[in-house]
Amino acid sequence: MGCTQLDISNMCRDDRIDLKNYNVDLLVEEFEMKKSIQPDFFYSIVKDSSGKLKHLCRFDFITIQHFKLFGDAVTFDTTYKTNVYSLIFGMFCGVNHHRKTVIFGSAFLR
After folding, report:
1. How does pLDDT run across 52-68, given as a tens digit for each residue?
2. Structural domain of residue 37, as residue ranges?
3. In Å, what is the CA distance from 76 to each residue of 12, 27, 42, 55?
4. How far apart are CA 66 and CA 54, in angstroms?
5. Can you name the residues that pair with 42 across neighbouring β-strands?
6. Which of 3, 32, 77, 99 sits at a 20 to 30 Å CA gap from 15?
């Protein structure tokens, strides 16, 4: 059975539309799996009344360890609307003993 490039493109488009409604649920599943493997993994997700992602914050074992070692000064850096969901991406950063940037965690905010 043959197909054209347009058929494949249409199938991919339809899959993206179907998955768009379940992205938050897939993310929660992924984070729960990570939490079962890494007990120190932390995340917080807030949905709005329609079930869309409103806020997300995550910290894993490495970022928590970096914060414990180098968390004397923390900055929260944001960029504006860098993804398809128009969410603001924020990053908790610091500096290690080699004056290199260390990431403590990340967040998406609406």
Report:
1. 778 888 888 888 888 88
2. 5-109
3. 36, 23, 18, 15
4. 27
5. 59
6. 32
Q: What 8-state DSSP symbol labels residue 48? A: -
Residue 86 has pLDDT above 80, yes or no: no
CA dihedral for 23, 29, 31, 37, sign (positive or negative): negative
Q: Let me know how long the chain is.
A: 110
Please name the residue ranges forming H helices in 1-110. Answer: 5-20, 23-37, 61-70
Work out how many domains the chain is built from and give that number. Answer: 1
pLDDT, position 91: 86
pLDDT tens across 5-40, in order? 888 888 888 777 666 666 777 888 888 898 998 888
Residue 93: phi, psi to the nearest 5? -125, 160
The CA distance from 53 to 65, in Å, is 27
Residue 98 pLDDT more than 80?
yes
Classified as helix, coil or strand, 10 is helix
